[in-house]
């Protein structure tokens, strides 16, 4: 049923990657929103008067400094702490008790507001070889706060037993039309918990409805959307009005918010929603929304950063399409969070569909530092993903889930920010 996807390699050859990068970067540049400003320097400084010789004086030179960017904390080489899913996980998940999750990927984690971590996974199977019952997604819960030896699970959302087998529940159903003419699968891309202001927590998942898988790092979505749960992830509602359309199959399919990353502001006033186009060959954009507005899925309350200001669709119907690039380059499977120890925003993603990198910024809108490779394909062949554990954002040790294609499972991975990079 999913054989086209299963036999699709995730890695690009160097030659193919280079060609795709040139073509797609050119495409991104040509479709940059009208009015989106180019990066500018914080100010223009005049050069000091040059030393004069006895024969002539050298006139003062006026120089324009490079745009100021945040200094990236130097990350230690990533190391795998323990496997998160599959038969070799710290808690083996391929048993009936854990829903026969033998192979899965992604592992997008967020705090549910009530003392647990929820973790959403992508396409799931009985074995690491991607055999058996196919579920487009599944959800685990954890209360484990000691990540130094790995991540243990408290529970998994289960489907009704067949009487013979016990499977994890596909929390967001998909049509599984594998011909490319409909919905192939539904993949979570971000998750967050929001409160209505009266103590009630609602879980929100951003997902992409995949139409078709293409070459490695390339896929096409029908739309992205929001789903919510009021029982800590047991049951979900996919709101048909809470979507970002990616256009017709024969159109450009370049909407900038097809894959998301949620992050709370340190003061709790905003939920930031970072977005990239479908696949791994687009750049990052950002919007924001008040948590109480996200609770009600008020789509008109989203404000998109246009490079100068936050603009809602109520102010400008084209606000989303005018969203400015804040994370340049080729950004895939983005995860963003604020690290209180470093006093910086962190962005982890797969760059150029190859290595996992880290960038930092003082604000969600940037300026973002240059990318630092934290996990290389040469060290972890077939890597992708890179989704931060939110309980590790208060110190120098940052943990994230990393997927390995050949194992088709997820691994808790750690980096350490350098001394002096934060408070």
Key features of this structure:
mainly beta, 3 helices, 423 residues, disordered N terminus, 9-stranded antiparallel beta sheet, 36% strand, Tachylectin-2, Chain A, 6% helix, 4-stranded antiparallel beta sheet
In short:
By secondary structure, the protein is mostly beta strands. The chain has 3 helices and 23 strands. A hairpin with a 5-residue loop joins strand 4 and strand 5.
Chain-wise SSE layout:
Layout (H helix, E strand, L loop, with lengths): L2 H4 L7 H17 L14 E2 L15 E2 L15 E5 L22 E6 L5 E5 L16 E5 L12 E2 L28 E11 L5 E13 L5 E11 L7 E9 L13 E6 L6 E6 L5 E8 L1 H5 L7 E3 L4 E3 L14 E13 L4 E8 L3 E7 L10 E4 L7 E6 L8 E8 L4 E8 L7
Antiparallel strand pairs: 1-2, 3-23, 4-5, 5-6, 6-7, 8-9, 9-10, 10-11, 12-13, 13-14, 14-15, 14-17, 15-16, 17-18, 18-19, 19-20, 21-22, 22-23
* Model regions low in confidence, pLDDT < 50 over at least 5 residues: 1-65
Q: What is the CATH topology?
A: Tachylectin-2, Chain A
Q: How would the global form be characterised?
A: globular
CATH class: Mainly Beta
State Rg: 22 Å
The portion of residues assigned to helices is under 10%
Average pLDDT over all residues = 86
**What fraction strand?**
35-45%
The CATH architecture can be given as 5 Propeller
Number of strands: 23
**CATH H-tier superfamily:** Glycosyl hydrolase domain, family 43
Distance between the termini: 51 Å
Order of helices and strands: HHEEEEEEEEEEEEEEHEEEEEEEEE
Given the helix and strand composition, which structural class is it? Answer: mainly beta
Major beta-sheet overview: 9 strands, antiparallel
Q: Provide a count of the helices.
A: 3
Indicate how many domains the architecture comprises: 1
């Amino acid at each position: 049923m999913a054989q086209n996807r299963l036999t699709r390699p995730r890695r690009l050859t160097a030659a193919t990657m280079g060609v795709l990068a040139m073509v797609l970067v050119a495409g991104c540049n040509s479709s940059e929103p009208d009015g989106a400003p180019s990066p500018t320097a914080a100010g223009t400084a005049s050069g000091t008067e040059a030393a004069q010789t006895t024969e002539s004086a050298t006139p003062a030179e006026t120089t324009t400094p490079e745009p100021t960017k945040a200094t990236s904390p130097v990350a230690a080489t990533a190391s795998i702490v323990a496997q998160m899913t599959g038969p070799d996980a710290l808690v083996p998940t391929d048993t009936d008790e854990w829903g026969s999750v033998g192979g899965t990927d992604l592992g997008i984690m967020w705090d549910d507001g009530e003392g647990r971590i929820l973790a959403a996974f992508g396409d799931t199977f009985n074995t690491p070889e991607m055999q058996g019952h196919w579920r487009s997604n599944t959800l685990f819960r954890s209360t484990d706060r000691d990540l130094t030896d790995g991540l243990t699970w408290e529970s998994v959302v289960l489907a009704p037993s067949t009487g013979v087998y016990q499977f994890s529940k596909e929390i967001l159903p998909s049509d599984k039309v594998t011909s490319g003419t409909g919905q192939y699968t539904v993949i979570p891309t971000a998750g967050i918990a929001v409160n209505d202001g009266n103590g009630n927590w609602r879980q929100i998942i951003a997902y992409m409805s995949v139409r078709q898988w293409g070459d490695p790092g390339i896929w096409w979505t029908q739309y992205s959307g929001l789903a919510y749960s009021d029982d800590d992830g047991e049951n979900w509602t996919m709101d048909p009005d809470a979507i970002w359309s990616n256009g017709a199959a024969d159109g450009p399919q370049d909407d900038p918010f097809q894959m998301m990353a949620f992050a709370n502001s340190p003061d709790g006033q905003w939920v930031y929603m970072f977005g990239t186009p479908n696949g791994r060959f687009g750049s990052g954009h950002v919007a924001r929304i008040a948590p109480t507005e996200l609770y009600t899925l008020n789509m008109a309350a989203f404000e998109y950063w246009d490079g100068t200001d936050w603009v809602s669709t109520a102010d400008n119907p084209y606000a989303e399409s005018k969203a400015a690039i804040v994370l340049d380059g080729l950004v895939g499977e983005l995860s963003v969070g604020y690290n209180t120890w470093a006093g910086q925003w962190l962005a982890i993603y797969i760059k150029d569909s190859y290595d996992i990198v880290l960038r930092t910024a003082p604000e969600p809108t940037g300026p973002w530092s240059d990318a630092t490779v934290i996990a290389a394909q040469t060290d972890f062949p077939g890597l992708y993903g890179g989704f931060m554990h939110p309980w590790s954002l208060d110190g120098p040790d940052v943990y994230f889930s990393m997927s390995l294609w050949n194992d088709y499972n997820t691994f808790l991975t750690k980096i350490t920010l350098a001394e002096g990079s934060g408070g």
